[in-house]
Amino acid sequence: MKILLCALLAIASPLLMNSANAGGCAKNSMGEVICAPPGGGAAVNSMGQVVTGRGGCARNSMGRVVCSDTPGSGAAVSGMGRVLTGPGECVTNNMGQVMCSSLPLGGAAINAMGQAVCAGGCVPGTEAPGE
Q1: What pTM was estimated for this model as a whole?
Q2: Contacts of 1 by beta carbon, 8 Å cutoff, 6+ apart
Q3: SS3 86
Q4: Which residues contact 92 (CB under 8 A, 6 or more apart)?
Q5: Which of 25, 54, 70, 101 has the most CB within a 10 Å radius?
């Protein structure tokens, strides 16, 4: 069962992943695609500029992009509008909680019930540096 779940996450993650972390690339307001280094993330700030980081990035409720310092990590915005990070990909569940894969580069997705499902198990996101 665990193998099947991991296989499904591996297939579905690119389709369901947080757009802030999708492939570590983002398009700026001029249409130019800018990519982070391997393991990094990218997100667009409120001024249309791409911000990249060593780890996952997301834009908070104030329009500021915040990134994790750890390559292969994830970032997502909580229900309170704050960026939280974790060891692997992060998602926001139906309760507004950020949950992240416990594995670096591990995938995470939201199931039909609005709950996080993570490769290696889920851990709560922690406040991002600079948030």
Answers
A1: 0.80
A2: none
A3: strand
A4: 18, 76, 77, 78, 79, 98, 99, 110
A5: 101
